[in-house]
Amino acid sequence: MRYFAQRLVFYVFTAWAAVTINFFVPRLTPGNPVDSLIAEYQGQISTQAVHSLTVLFGLDKQQGIFQQYISYLGQLARGDLGISFHSFPTPVSSVLAQSLPWTVCLVGVATVLSFAIGTLLGVIVGWRRGSLADMLMPITTFFASIPYFWLALLAIAAFTGVGSFLPSAGGYDPGLVPGWNGAFVASALKHSLLPAATIIVTSVAGWLMGMRNMVVTVSSEDYVTVAHAKGLSERRVMLGYAARNAMLPSVSGFGMALGLVVGGTFLVEYVFSYPGVGLELVSAIGQKDYPLMQGIFLVITLSVLAANFLADLAYMALDPRTRREG
Amino acid sequence: MTLHVDEPAAQHADADEAVLRISGLSVDYGVGERAVRAVSDVSLTLRRGEVLGLAGESGSGKSTLAYGLTRLLAPPGVVACGTVIYHPGDGSEPVDVLALDHAGLRRFRWAQTSIVFQAAMNALNPVDKISAQLTDVIKAHRPDLDRAARIARARELLGLVGIPADRLDSYPHQLSGGMRQRVMIGMALALEPRIVIMDEPTTALDVVMQRQILAVFTRLRKRLDFSVVFITHDLSLLVEFADRIAIMYGGRIVEEAPAAQIYRDPLHPYSDGLLHSFPALRGPRRELAGIPGSPPDPRSLPSGCAFHPRCPKAFDPCAREVPILGAPGEAGPGAAQGAGGGARSVACWLHTSDRSTA
């Protein structure tokens, strides 16, 4: 329990540091939001509007930096991440609320599936090393070595087009209104099949290889020999003794991979024009939409932290040696 | 390549007492041309209630022999030839261990032959509680017992080896090395097997702990009456603990005799060297001497007697011919089996009277 508390304190501290950096970085850059917005809407904003914008952004109050910091923390606590320049005056939080679920569902589910499939195959390949199952290794590694965007483009070329079941772009049928109804969910699922499949195909090799190697290593441990000598069933030895110990390093890796779900896969969304956070970030960068970029970075940082925290918890549950009584 | 001829006819009175009969067992690592023979042509009989010590330097093949006879060899190890016959005490048919199918082997393991491994540190699964590791083997072999009965048995086993029952909920890393080894001994006795193979069970422990473990083990052996194959490089331990000792060198048994005889009067120069390479626990002080040279590489064993390059007494035939394991002063077929009740055998040209037979 003490270990748990230590980790929690560590993560809270890191989150605070991330939030603070997020506050200071834009204030270190030259210019102010009003100038940026004017630059964004060149010639479309009248001079009278400049003043009202200054008031809107709260730049007329002449607060000290510390007061600004306090009110920034207060805003964050209310979930207020500022106003997007590009889709002015939509708040950044609503932009994120629209795109985040898409990314989390698509990439999150694909990452979990990839981990599950790769780990399971890794156990089998490692356990039956030297058999035909070894063939899986070069095959999956081949797919992992293809640059992702290239594979995705090939997949679009091969599997989509006129008359194909699979759509080539988007998150759902443009004719539908997002909502919790059968038609929309079915359409969203259909649109996610190809991106999810390409993610899995390119990432499964890493899990497979890591797990296989660990299973091979663990198989020569004494406790696995003891388990054999005890006359336990092959299945029990493989899962309860070999795989159970071999998967510990993979769990840490999985935590990291989950953390990168939000930030690390804009390529997927870009190629498939998928309405997620990655695509949002790319367009925010293109349009110099600083508040949106800031919001996305904050979300990425926090999700990495949250995922790592979850991985820590999982590791504690799986490996009794990391639990410290105290 | 075998000079040793097996002859079941010469077995005497204690054929009914034999628990395990190994004959002509050879173990290779790898197959085909590049195979390396780690154990060659070993014949041993383990009798009921007896402690058979197996001694030798690292790489002499003693552990490989134990893994070979329990079919636990990890690839590329393979049993090249020989038989291992287990005689169940209940009057049923002898079992050919090497011919058992998977299911039969699973039933045989631990129920008849259990093993205590060298490094207790690694022999317990680090992520499971002691209770889970003691009960899973009971569950696998005794499906009739329910959970409460299994836990009760696990509790009893810990009691046998002198560990408080509340340790059932501990993980292996929470136990000391000695405790872990005692848990392993308790685990080995879970199904009351008739044979316990101990592969250097005390090597990783300090001397005090070694004593404790052996005391526990001796007590349990008197009570439960099982036979032991005790593998170690520590001949001093065997002299005290074993009834009979077989000395291995280069994958062969070079001498086999009752423990007291080996201690008082080792015949093979290698046994003699081993005995003089450690201080005696009791008795007068004497000078220690090592054996010059290092153990042979099993990929290229010396010709003839594998020990001859290091042997202080090597003479003419040693480099040419492999000496036969036989009663001292005799040679030839049949002599080895004379090793029954108290007799001894040695594979050395010094103790072979008729050298022309080979």
Automatic annotation (TrEMBL), chain A:
User: Principal localization?
Assistant: membrane
- UniProt xrefs under PANTHER family: OLIGOPEPTIDE TRANSPORT SYSTEM PERMEASE PROTEIN
Sorted alphabetically, the Gene Ontology cellular component annotations on this record are:
plasma membrane
Q: Where in the cell is it found?
A: Cell membrane; Membrane
Swiss-Prot/TrEMBL GO biological process terms:
transmembrane transport
Q: Which Gene3D superfamilies match?
A: MetI-like
Please name the Pfam families in this protein's record: BPD_transp_1
Family designation: Belongs to the binding-protein-dependent transport system permease family.
What's the superkingdom here? Bacteria
What does the UniProt keyword field contain? Membrane, Transmembrane, Transmembrane helix, Transport
Q: Under which name does UniProt file this protein?
A: ABC transporter permease
* Recorded topology in the membrane: Multi-pass membrane protein
Species of origin reads Actinocrinis puniceicyclus
Query: ABC transmembrane type-1 domain: from which residue to which, for each copy?
Result: 100-311
Q: Which residues form a coiled coil?
A: none
* Sequence intervals crossing the membrane: 7-25, 100-127, 148-172, 192-210, 246-272, 292-318
